[in-house]
Design goal:
mainly alpha, globular
Length: 55
């Protein structure tokens, strides 16, 4: 039986950074690369314009 669960990989204060699509995509790619893309089934975010563009 496959058990699904959520994991928080890291927490960082990025409040001083500009949350552009390029910045967010870079941070998301860093995490996916560090953990391994085969371990992801989804990436969830809010629906700000920058998050939508980063996808």
């Amino acid at each position: 039986m496959l058990l699904r669960h959520e994991i928080i990989y890291s927490l960082k204060n990025l409040s001083s950074e500009s949350h552009t699509a390029k910045f967010l995509a870079g941070k998301i790619n860093e995490v996916i690369t560090n953990i391994g893309p085969e371990k992801f089934s989804a990436v969830v975010s809010d629906h700000t314009a920058a998050c939508a563009s980063a996808k």
